[in-house]
Amino acid sequence: MAARSLLSVLLLLACVLLEPQNARALTLSARLIHRFSDEAKALRISRSGEDYKDLGRWPQRNSMDYYHLLASTDFQKQKMKLGSRRHFQFLFPSEGSNTVSFGNDFGWLHYTWIDIGTPNVSFLVALDTGSDLFWVPCDCIQCAPLSASYYSTLDRDLNEYSPSGSNTSKHVSCSHELCESGTNCESPKQSCPYTVDYYTENTSSSGLLVEDILHFAAGGDDGPNTSIEAPVIIGCGMKQSGGYLDGIAPDGLLGLGLGEISVPTFLAKAGLTKNSFSMCFDEDDSGRLFFGDQGPATQQSTSFLPSNGNYETYIVGVEACCIGNSCLKQTSFKALVDSGTSFTFLPEALYDKISEEFDRQVNATITNYAGSPWKYCYNTSSQDLPKVPSVTFMFVANNSFVVHDPVFPINGNQGVVGFCLAIQPTDGDIGTIGQNFMTGYRTVFDRENLKLGWSRSNCQDFSDAKSMPLTPSKGTPPNPLPTNEQQSTPGGFAPAVAGRAPSKPSAASSRLVSSQFCSLRLLPLLLVLFLIVLVI
């Protein structure tokens, strides 16, 4: 301890002595001494007053004992480095791993509670694998209503974030490598602005980037849950537009994409979890979210595909499509797997083939429902949903993703009165596998191996999760029909692929440059001091 104190004092004096005005007048030199050399042994004896025999085990150079001690010391140092950063099997929001969908009231997306800052404040955020940035309403200029009275399914008011109210919030400057708008700033020291435009028409979020901590619970096979605080960069969303003012993600959006600014990226780079996460959506509108989950060994999988040479989003290649037992020719396509899109969209030519084959196989009378965004809707004579043909996406190596109920039930006063094939056409050659087709699956986004994994699940197979403190109102109709406006565009009323802030070089701050310059000039002195402390 005394040696460390001495080292700190010497470093402080050195920084004073080596200021630019003194640097030219001072020249340092050093000679390296091996820790097991004769010189090191003599220095150890002279400083400690020990007798040669009291030094204990001092290996002879190039002996087996010599190399064993070197390897042993290196191994112990490596264990210290690894032990300083604990790796967890699962990580999930401190409020619990549960997710929930509130139906039409919140745009048919899945949400979870997540705590931010110190003291921690809870936010009900939508889960979106199609974008990167995590933003919440903050120091609002134009935000959605946050009062529970505005929504029929909430039992508490939503919150607004303020960096000044959190002891752990930090300024993110325009010089930060994740500041996409840095080149437009007047000064590299000013706060970094952001604007994210989503595929849904006129839907965006803008404000300032800030750094703060997210609160997680960590679980695994070796003990009880542990509380974790993880620093991330979030968007202080001062101004929202479009769907974000109309009930979609009123309390924020958790971007889970492949970008450098997404929460999974921060967690993996901090060494807290494996670079992977899973989402599981059950048919009762509940679900689970786990960071670090790479799925069971028995799951099926397919590789993500690059876009313009880079892995930017979760795009997969479907080899063929089947309706029931009938597999259709020339039905390959690429699809974005996006939990932030409520329903599924297919390229128009493919949509026509699939919907026509579905219509041929289904045993029901086609009809129209007022306000329905879907073309193929049917009456049912019973109060229960009849058996309908499945939709199957075939991938390489004969992996198959089967959607057993690709329909949306239409409810009346006496129960189910009909159903619609919950697929819509979209322009272009890339479709979207939305949240509705992910229902009933534990879907794994393995970013480490660039693979999508899936396995059938009731979403109750995880033991290390707490219950959500919020449930849908019992007085809400089970499946109110989504409005035509909400389903008018690909991505619907939900965020699809957003513009992300790519990693790029940036001008370092003057403090960082000064610190690096000082470190370089002190290098010889640091080596000498290190050797002295090591021998001691």
Automatic annotation (TrEMBL):
Keywords assigned: Aspartyl protease, Cell membrane, Glycoprotein, GPI-anchor, Hydrolase, Lipoprotein, Membrane, Protease, Signal
Cellular component, GO, one term: side of membrane
Q: GO:BP terms for this protein?
A: proteolysis
Q: Where is the Peptidase A1 domain?
A: 110-455
The UniProt record lists the keyword Signal: yes
Source species, domain of life: Eukaryota
Q: What is its main location?
A: membrane
The membrane-topology field of this record reads: Lipid-anchor; GPI-anchor
* Places the protein is found: Cell membrane
Please state what the protein is called. Answer: Peptidase A1 domain-containing protein
Please give the organism. Prunus dulcis
